[in-house]
Amino acid sequence: MGKRDKKRREWLARKGDHERRALYQRAARLRKAAAEPARRRRKGPSFGEDEEGGFERLGRRRSGSLEEWVERLRAEEAPGSGAPQEPELVEATTDGTVIWLGPGRARVLLDAGGELECLLCPEIAVTQRSDLAVGDRVAVSETEEVARVEAVLARRTALSRLDPGGGRPIERVIAANVDAVVVVVATRTPPLRRRLVDRFLVAVERGGARPILCLAKIDLLESEPALDELLETLGPYRELGIPVLACSSVSGRGLPELRAALAGRTCVLVGQSGVGKSSLLNALDPRLGLETREISQSVGKGRHTTTASELLRLEGDIRVIDTPGIREFGLFDLTREELRWYFHEFDAPAQSCRFGDCSHVHEPDCGVREAVAAGGVAEARYDSYQRLLASIPEASR
Ligand code: GDP
Ligand code: ZN
Fold first, then answer.
1. Band of residue 121 on the pLDDT scale cut at 50, 70, 90
2. Fewest C-beta atoms under 10 Å: which of 155, 236, 249, 273?
């Protein structure tokens, strides 16, 4: 992002929603006027017409990006200048949600209704893989020939994964504005991996979404006590306030509860391959017909071959973002200090650690380790913490 872009984003962030919207509308109107033939433009706003430079030139062939016009408005804004108020042109830009994203293109579900196939403005296209994700709220401009995503609006939440790339790892936002992340684990095949769950929980909280734990394939358990026993081991999560649901896509048990937990929300399902995510989605809405393991194996090709990301709309007002990268989302740029704050059961016992910056591993008089010994903090969670800590290089301090 250029310095100018950064300044503009900060400037926009200081404005209220209404004012920001009005600005984009005004910029879009000016942009449109610049694109019109000169004859018609005479009647239009005079903004930019006395300019020799960039915008007029751009205006002859293409009108420039909306962000460029917003930038102009920013430059114009001076205290007490009393810039002439443009009447608002309501249809100039519309807001919507990105429901599908492919190379250089997006499909946007407009707030006003309907879907629009859009190109991405050059600034966004260049940084697409880090700057735009399914679920993002965007401002879209539309002319007779083309619809374009002009700006990405502020995100409520963002799930990211670390892309090692060539050199320095880059944060890739893989889903935006997600309300709930369902961490799916199976009763067996594959066996429950608690550390993976803990890792997901940290990443979910960092991204600002709400976690839900879903124990899938409960039909594979031989008895009711076996289910109770397994749920008991998930007790520490329940104590942390994380909803724990038990489901089977085969018997249908627990599906109403899952449906209720997700209604009206945008969510994402994460978990190891084979835990039954696609089967759960199919069970929630049979119209989806997502590929599950048997099907993909029977036709002898790999799963999740799609490179596009999309937002699925399920029965019961449930929105699910399905992207190839979602299954690997990890811990971006997490420091060793930060990690301990995501293990909330440490919060209270940490009050009695001798050192304020106690890492709860080797220090004497550690309240957390005492709590683990006394059974107040689940050993399995403490074990996860230690292993996660060990996986973060010292250098990131
Ligand atoms: P994903 O990789 O997480 O999307 O998992 P899939 O939905 O493809 O399921 C993996 C395998 O588990 C498939 O063979 C499914 O038939 C099976 N499976 C999924 N859900 C259930 C369930 O609730 N009960 C049982 N018995 N098998 C299931
Ligand atoms: Zn400590």
1. confident
2. 273
The span from the CA of 179 to the CA of 318, in Å, is 11
Displacement of CA 373 from its chain's centroid (Å):
38
Task: Calculate ∠ Cα 70-117-18, nearest 5°.
Answer: 35
Is the separation of the CB atoms in 385 and 334 below 8 Å? no
Strands 158-163 and 147-152: unpaired
What average pLDDT does this structure show over 138-148? 89
For residues 194 and 174, give the distance between their C-alpha atoms in angstroms, rounded to a whole number.
23
Q: Rounded distance, CA 49 to CA 295, Å?
A: 61
Contact between 270 and 211 under an 8 Å Cβ cutoff? The reply is: no
CB 346 within 8 A of CB 368: yes
367 alpha carbon – ligand 2 mean position (Å): 5
Ligand 1 atom index nearest CA of 281: 7
- Ligand 1 site residues (CB inside 6 A) read 216-217, 219-220, 248-250, 273-279, 292-294
Residue 276 CA, ligand 1 centroid: distance in Å = 4
Substitution site in 214, 219, 293 for ligand 1 pocket (most atoms within 8 Å of beta carbon): 293
The tens digit of pLDDT for each residue in 267-305 reads 999 888 889 999 999 999 989 888 877 655 544 444 444
Provide DSSP, 128-168.
Answer: HHHH--TT-EEEEEE-SS-EEEEEEPPPS-EEEEEE--SSS
Containing 309, the helix (H) or strand (E) segment is strand 309-314
CA distance to 121, 180, 242, 377, 397, per residue, from 348 (Å): 49, 26, 18, 10, 24
* Structure tokens belonging to residue 356: 């304020």
pLDDT tens for each residue of 340-367 = 889 999 999 999 999 999 999 999 999 9
User: Residue 32's pLDDT is what?
Assistant: 62
pLDDT classification of 385: cutoffs 50, 70, 90:
very high
d(CA 294, CA 288): 16
Query: Using CA atoms, how far apart are residues 397 and 394, in angstroms rounded to an integer?
Result: 6
Q: Is the pLDDT of residue 197 over 70?
A: yes
pLDDT, averaged across the chain: 80
User: Average pLDDT of 6-34?
Assistant: 75
